[in-house]
Write a structure and sequence with these properties.
Length: about 450
C-alpha cells in the first residue's frame, strides 16, 4: 500500500461505488438533524447485514454437511429390496427331444423381498482420509468467512475515510469561498473609493467562484461515498439515513508495533493463511485417500428376505431365507485410473502447499508496506499541523497588510492558496493516518479482534 490516502482509497473504494454513480447529483447535501454513524457502528452493520457474508455463511453450512456425509461412511447401511421377474426357459439347440420334453417350458414369475445390511470393515483407510479432508474443508470455509469479514472491515474503513475526506474537502472549499467572498466585498468597497483596481475585483470574483466549484465537486464525492457506504451497509435505498453524520475517530496510539511483532501476529491470526493451511491439509488427505485403491475392500453383509416362484403369496416357513457373510473386493486392474487419480491428488497437494507459501510471502510484504505507510502518515500529520498553524497566521497578517494597502493582490492570493493547501494537507494526513492504521490492522488480522470477530 502506498502512504498517501488517495492511492489507498483508489484500491478499495471503486469496488463499493460502481452501483452508486448513477444516483449522484452535484448539489450540496441538505442540512438535517445530525445522526451520528461512527466507523465502528458502520463496520458492525456491514458484518451483520451484507448479503455476501450471508452467502459465505451458507458455504460454511454446506461444508459442515459434507463432514456429516463423510462421517456416515463409518455406519452400517440398511436397504430394502423388492423384485418381480418374469422367466422364459428355452431348450438348447441339439438337445434330445425326449429330454427336452421333460422340461417345463411354461413362463413363470419370481417374487422376492429382502432386507440387506452391510458394514464396511476395511476400505484402505479411505473413510479416515475422506473425513479428514472434509473436516479441513470445513475449516477452510470457516476461515474464508472470517477472511471475508476482514476484507469487509477494510473496505468499510476505506469507504468511510473517503466520505470523511470529501466532507473535509467541502469544508475547506466553503471556508475558501467565504474568505474570498469577504475579500471580494472589501475590494469592491476599495474600488468604489478609488483605491483598488477593477482587475482586483474580478480576481476575487474568480477565486470565490473557483472555491464554489471545488465545493460542488467535493459534494459529489460526498454523495458517492455515502451511496457506496450505504451499499456496504445493505441499505436498500442506496443512501444513508437523512442527516447521518460521520465522525472522525480520535487519533490512535502513536506506538507502532515492531515488524517482528506484526509479522508474528499476522502469521497466527490471518484467516486466509489459516484457510490456505486447511486447504493444504485437505489436499494431502485426499492424496492419501487415493491410496485406498491399492487395498481390498472388506464388508460384512447380512440379508434376510422372502422369495417365491409363480405366486406372490409368501409362506414364512417355506419361502424365508437368511444369509450372513463377509465379502472382499480387490481391484487388480482398472486401466491406470487409480495411478492417475493418485498423481492428480498429489499434484493438488503440492499446489495447495505452494499457494500457502506464496500467501505467506504476500502477507509479509503487506505488513512491511503498511508499517512504513503508518509511520509516514503520522509524521506527515505532525508536520502539516505546524504548517497549517503558520499558514493561517501569515494569511491573517497579509490580509491586514492588503486592507491597509501595503500588500498587493498577488501576495494575498499566494498566502490564501498556501493556507488552503496546508488545511488540505492536514486533513489528508489525518485521514491517511487513520486509514493506514485500519489497513495495518487488516493485513495483520487485528481488525477482527478489535471488532469482536475472534
Amino acid at each position: 500500500m502506498k502512504p498517501y490516502v488517495f492511492s489507498l482509497l483508489l484500491v478499495a473504494f471503486p469496488l463499493a461505488t460502481s452501483l452508486a454513480m448513477d444516483a449522484v447529483t452535484t448539489n450540496v447535501p441538505a442540512t438535517a438533524p445530525a445522526q451520528t454513524l461512527t466507523l465502528d457502528e458502520a463496520k458492525a452493520l456491514a458484518l451483520r447485514d451484507h448479503p455476501s457474508l450471508e452467502a459465505m455463511r451458507q458455504r460454511v453450512a454446506a461444508a459442515a454437511a459434507t463432514v456429516r456425509i463423510a462421517r456416515s461412511a463409518y455406519w452400517p447401511t440398511l436397504n430394502a429390496d423388492a423384485s418381480a421377474m418374469r422367466t422364459q426357459k428355452h431348450a438348447y439347440t441339439g438337445m434330445p427331444t425326449a429330454f427336452a420334453s421333460q422340461i417345463d417350458m411354461t413362463p413363470y414369475s419370481t417374487y422376492g423381498v429382502d432386507l440387506i445390511a452391510g458394514w464396511v470393515l476395511f476400505d484402505g483407510f479411505r473413510r479416515d482420509f475422506d473425513l479428514l479432508a472434509a473436516q479441513q474443508g470445513e475449516n477452510a470455509s470457516r476461515n474464508a468467512l472470517t477472511d471475508a469479514q476482514r476484507l469487509m472491515l477494510q473496505t468499510v474503513a476505506a469507504t468511510y475515510c473517503h466520505a470523511l475526506l470529501a466532507r473535509e474537502t467541502m469544508r475547506i472549499a466553503q471556508e475558501d469561498e467565504d474568505f474570498s467572498g469577504t475579500l471580494l466585498a472589501d475590494t469592491r468597497n476599495r474600488f468604489t473609493a478609488g483605491v483598488a483596481l477593477q482587475s482586483e475585483v474580478l480576481t476575487f470574483e474568480n477565486r470565490r467562484d473557483q472555491a464554489e466549484g471545488q465545493r460542488v465537486e467535493a459534494a459529489k464525492s460526498w454523495r458517492v461515498a455515502h451511496a457506496a457506504l450505504a451499499a456496504l451497509l445493505a441499505l436498500p435505498a442506496g443512501e444513508l439515513p437523512q442527516g447521518a453524520e460521520l465522525t472522525l475517530p480520535a487519533a490512535a496510539s502513536t506506538n507502532t508495533p515492531s515488524p517482528e511483532a506484526a509479522l508474528a501476529y499476522a502469521a497466527a491470526h490471518r484467516p486466509d493463511l489459516q484457510a490456505a493451511e486447511a486447504q493444504a491439509q485437505a489436499a494431502d488427505a485426499q492424496a492419501h485417500s487415493a491410496d485406498a485403491a491399492w487395498w481390498p475392500r472388506v464388508e460384512a453383509v447380512a440379508q434376510s428376505g422372502l422369495a417365491r416362484d409363480r405366486d406372490l403369496r409368501f409362506e414364512a416357513d417355506h419361502n424365508q431365507n437368511l444369509s450372513i457373510g463377509v465379502q472382499a473386493t480387490w481391484n487388480f486392474f482398472g486401466g491406470g485410473r487409480d495411478t492417475a487419480a493418485r498423481e492428480a491428488a498429489e499434484a493438488g497437494a503440492h499446489a495447495a502447499a505452494g499457494m500457502k507459501s506464496a500467501l505467506a510471502l504476500q502477507i509479509a510484504a503487506e505488513v512491511q508496506q503498511n508499517l512504513a505507510a503508518l509511520d509516514a502518515s503520522r509524521a506527515q500529520f505532525a508536520i502539516q499541523a505546524r504548517v497549517l498553524d503558520r499558514a493561517r497566521k501569515i494569511r491573517d497578517l497579509v490580509r491586514q497588510e492588503y486592507v491597509g494597502g501595503t500588500a498587493g493582490i498577488t501576495r494575498m492570493n499566494e498566502v490564501q492558496n498556501e493556507a488552503v493547501k496546508a488545511d488540505a494537507g492536514l486533513v489528508i494526513s489525518r485521514i491517511d493516518a487513520l486509514l493506514s492504521q485500519e489497513n495495518l490492522d487488516a493485513v495483520t488480522g487485528r481488525s477482527l479482534e478489535r471488532n469482536g470477530r475472534e
